[in-house]
Specification:
The chain is built from one helix and five strands; from the N terminus they run E-E-E-E-H-E. With 78 residues, it is mainly beta. The longest helix is centred in the middle third of the chain and has 6 residues. It is globular and about 45 Å long.
């Protein structure tokens, strides 16, 4: 594995680490009807051809169910 998503508890302690097959994760968001799936985007723009060969999934979107849910957003009205 190359990268990771780290979840911290309210006291700042590491609660969980999820490893990813890409070293450059760019964003995380909860989705699905129950907001229980986390989607993680990754990038590969600045990686060298050798790094891309070693990280063939860089630039992909990953999804997993972390056992926590997101909070519904507030619609923008303007």
């Amino acid at each position: 594995m190359f990268g990771r998503i780290t979840r911290y508890d309210p006291n700042g302690r590491i609660e969980r680490i999820v490893e990813t097959p890409a070293s450059w994760c760019t964003s995380c968001i909860f989705g699905d009807a129950d907001l229980g799936t986390m989607y993680v985007t990754s990038a590969r723009e600045s990686l060298s051809p050798e790094e891309i060969a070693g990280e063939p999934l860089s630039g992909a979107i990953f999804a997993f169910r972390p056992g926590a849910t997101g909070i519904a957003g507030v619609p923008f009205d303007g």
